[in-house]
Please model this.
Amino acid sequence: MKKQSTRDVGIITLAAVLILGVMLVGLQTSDSVKAHNSQNANSQTTTSQVEKPFDQAQALADLRKTIAGQEQNPASEVFKNIQMFKAMPAGRLLRVMELGYAKSLGVNCTHCHVAGQWEKEDKPTKQIARDMAAMVTNINQEQLKKIKNLKSPDPVINCTTCHRGQTKPALNLPDSAPKQ
Ligand code: HEC
Ligand code: HEC
Model:
């Protein structure tokens, strides 16, 4: 009788362990399915974020919001890494970026910046732009002043003078240009 009950307890324990085992495996499977599904959901979000095209108007609107109330303060006090336009009002710097730089080269902000990381120096084009600005200043303040008998009392060039909406300034007029 005692022997019998020990065996019964043994069988019951075995059955319980088996049932528990099956339940655990079931739990694990449903968890890993859930994990897998949420991984898929995550990777879908990441892909759609990467594929979203850069929105320049939105970037400018966000920046204007960030500097609201400080538009007239010197750019060097409002932004993080100003080496050239230190005294320029912060609001004006954004207009130079939009119209003086992006538009005149026919590009958007991401030609010189990683979007949102404006203070960084990730792209060589950002330093090129500073070097180009130094060249323009030199032409305006030194070279043009040496040339006599020009029409303007104070002749100037800017980025658009050469670039005209292209990253590589043209050496020839387009074929379609009217012949003189
Ligand atoms: C042709 C290259 C070029 C383009 C295009 C350009 N930038 Fe810049 N950006 C610069 C340079 C160069 C500086 C640093 C100026 C300095 O050192 O005084 C700068 C600085 C900035 C800063 C200051 C960041 C900080 O915290 O120091 C912001 C903000 C900025 N740019 C936004 C923009 C936005 C927005 C656009 C597009 C509308 C844009 N830029 C397009 C070259 C560019
Ligand atoms: C006197 C003519 C001239 C002026 C003015 C000028 N550039 Fe340039 N720029 C060039 C030439 C030439 C290149 C080289 C193109 C090449 O790679 O063949 C160039 C290249 C560049 C590049 C590299 C483009 C790329 O994607 O490789 C940037 C950025 C640039 N210029 C910005 C400016 C900015 C900003 C201004 C105004 C501050 C400016 N440039 C004014 C002649 C000029």
Summary: The longest helix spans residues 2-51. The helical segments are 2-51, 56-66, 75-78, 90-105, 124-143, 159-163. DSSP finds six helices and no strands in the chain. The domain at 56-163 is CATH 1.10.468.10 (Photosynthetic Reaction Center, subunit C; domain 2).
